[in-house]
Amino acid sequence: MRPVLYVLTFLGLIALGFWAYRENYATQAALREVRGLQNEIANLREALSVQRAEWAYLNRPERLRDLAGLNFDTLKLLPMEPQQFGAVAQVVMPVPEIAPITGPIDSLSGMAAVDDNIADQVEAIVATAAGEGL
């Protein structure tokens, strides 16, 4: 009985060693992949910052003003001036209409009317469904 126990223990030890070996290589592969992804993210962030700098450089007001002047014949763009903008106080806001209150409001009778209206709608839907054979 002992030799069988020794053989099973030895085989279990070999299986655990094989498992640890595979896990070690899988972990190393995952770490290499993570390092590669981090490098790619860093490169993309750098490229994005370069593109933002180029965008800011190309959208300089003096450059856009010069381009509008050079292409006036084609685009017919006029330079912007501060007098073209208005103030918020100059905007006319619509006044919401408020219905006049002519007398006391009975809130309970309004609720009963809503309940009756819903009951009528349910009866109409049931009647329509019954008429269609549903």
TrEMBL record:
Keywords: Cell cycle, Cell division, Coiled coil. It comes from Pseudogemmobacter lacusdianii. This is Cell division protein FtsL. The keyword Coiled coil applies. GO terms for biological process: cell division. The keyword Coiled coil applies. Residues 27-54 form a coiled coil.
